[in-house]
From TrEMBL:
This is Beta-1,4-galactosyltransferase. Residues 1-35 form the signal peptide. Responsible for the synthesis of complex-type N-linked oligosaccharides in many glycoproteins as well as the carbohydrate moieties of glycolipids. Pfam families: Glyco_transf_7C, Glyco_transf_7N. Pathway: Protein modification; protein glycosylation. Its main location: Golgi. Residues 75-207 form the Galactosyltransferase N-terminal domain. It is a single-pass type II membrane protein. Residues 211-288 form the Galactosyltransferase C-terminal domain. Gene3D superfamilies: Spore Coat Polysaccharide Biosynthesis Protein SpsA, Chain A. GO terms for molecular function: metal ion binding; N-acetyllactosamine synthase activity.
Amino acid sequence: MGVLPTLFKVARRGKCLLLLVLCLCVLAWIAAISSDDVVKESPFEDLKAIEESPRRELESEMIPSVEEQTLKESCPERSPLLRGALKLTFEASVTLEQVESENQEVVGGQYNPADCVARQSVAILIPYRNREKHLLYFLYHLHPFLQRQQLHYAIYVIHQAGDVTFNRAKLLNVGYLEALKDYNWDCFIFHDVDLIPENDENLYVCEEQPKHLVVGRNSTGYKLRYKGYFGGVSGMTKDQFHLVNGFPNTYWGWGGEDDDLRIRIQLQRMTIVRPPAEVARYTMVFHKRDSGNQVNKDRMLLLRRTPQTWKKDGLNSCSYNILSVNREPLYINITADIGQPEHAH
Ligand code: UDP
Ligand code: MN
């Protein structure tokens, strides 16, 4: 073979190679652009910014420092302080001052075990309006209960300002977003104010899957209300709740919002776990249906649309105004203006 043709061949191969490299570059560029698009389209972009925003200065020294974390041992898997089934009392004479004086280790609504590092940091979120006596009973029972479980926890009361129709789900979204400004909580427990756990083996920690803590309550003969019921008290990790875009904001009045959350969970192929029935028992403090929380007649319609709406109705679209954040001794009171139903019926 002559020198010239060989050179020519090499040059041609070189060109091919060049072309190939060029093609690869173009492909890589296209991939980069399209992945950019995906990120931009993600409904959770703004949400991430909120979740990762700098923490508000917590007023107490309850948060363990890095040194503390390394010096102290992790709390045991099973707390030695648990007592099992409890005898609950509801004394009409109980006062806030009394409950405060019995819980002096709680500072600004927050508690951290003194002798060991808690296995989880848990934010208890309570949707709230006008249930003063219930809140008092809640604080009276829940503080000692949570302390026996050796948890690092805080109780957040999310108070709906004004007297437009109540919106439990939106208040819980507000609670999640606001609590994350305080601390990077592992676990969120969404908790009706009137439900008191009857057994301290019902652990207020999160699991691999979303957890429903109320199998039975006195008012329903301690039976699960219906298969798939996810109301009353439920627990999700920060990531689980983020993944489903939180609760819907569009359920005004009583009912449906807990089923919507269950559908969101199922759409993400997660499953709901529950403690054994003999443990997951609650007493509901008796009450009538509140004025301002009438049955939501649209709930069945809304529930049918959840697969289409969940991505745009949730944490990423939750708009509200914080009117005040008060760090009371036994809870953090967040008063929020959460607006009103878009279409008045
Ligand atoms: N809630 C409240 N004020 C109201 C209505 C509801 O604080 O006016 C909160 C409270 O935490 C309550 C929860 O929303 O436990 C659920 O409402 P409700 O107790 O009426 O539901 P149900 O008893 O039917 O489960
Ligand atoms: Mn109730």
